[in-house]
Amino acid sequence: MDALRGIAIVWMTVFHFCFDLAHFGWLHANFLADPFWTVQRSAIVSLFLFTAGLGQAIALRQRLGWPRCWRRWAQVAGCALLVTAGSALMFPRSFIYFGVLHGLACMLVVVRLTGGWGRWLWPAGAVAIALPWLAAQGLQGSGWETIAQTLNGRALNWLGLVTRKPFTEDYVPLLPWLGVLWWGMAAGQWLLRHRPAWLGVALPLPGRALAGLGRWSLSWYMLHQPVLIGLVAGVGALTGHT
């Protein structure tokens, strides 16, 4: 599980480095519309949330209580607020108000409360993943304009039942991403019942390095972008690149 999270961290870091290069004019790329980038972004978020679901399955099996859960939740929620503040300084018109950490903070509580659903987590995840698409299709019809406008507004677009994506640098709403977390928990519970040895399999040296990185995922997430942005901006200033 830690190694999978480590893979997501490395992939995310490379992705964000390319994004920063594009932001400062070193790379010509459309991160909003080009499938090469948008599909990668979805895959990275999916891997992060799937491993978060695996972790919740293990936490429930180890009977880790709510006090520890709330401590981790406070760390995630606090970092989410820092992301909002930092993005507001750099992108005041498109700051992050409900990105991956904001979504994760909400989803962790929901997943914790629904951990006893067992095999029903699989269909629940499928419904959660399908609902945004169904809502987008259904709300396009005439007579639904008022409801669509309300769901598209910032007060409710964190649910994910929108007909247009909001203008923000990162957007990870409750739906469909809760479904990925539910599937991660369902997979973790299946592994713990039927293949527990798979979660503790011995890894080669590169895998152990990724696992070590995966154990510090939140710290890495918070620090990597300031470092990358500072590096790219510094090199640009030294070379006179505009």
Structural class: mainly alpha
Mean pLDDT: 93
Helix content: 55-70%
The portion of residues forming beta strands comes to under 5%
> The biggest beta sheet, please?
none
**Envelope shape:** globular
Radius of gyration: 19 Å
- Pattern of helices and strands: HHHHHHHHH
Count up the helices: 9
**Strand element count:** 0
What low-confidence regions span 5 or more consecutive residues with pLDDT below 50?
A: none
Separation of termini? 42 Å
How is this structure best summarized?
The protein is an all-alpha fold and 242 residues long.
Explain what the structure shows:
- By secondary structure, this protein is mainly α.
- The protein is built from 9 helices and no strands.
- The mean pLDDT is 93.
Blueprint of the fold:
Elements: H1 2-23, H2 35-61, H3 66-90, H4 100-113, H5 121-138, H6 145-152, H7 174-194, H8 205-214, H9 217-239
Helix pairs in contact: 1-2, 1-8, 1-9, 2-4, 2-7, 3-4, 4-7, 5-7
Protein traits:
single chain, 242 residues, mainly alpha, 0% strand, globular
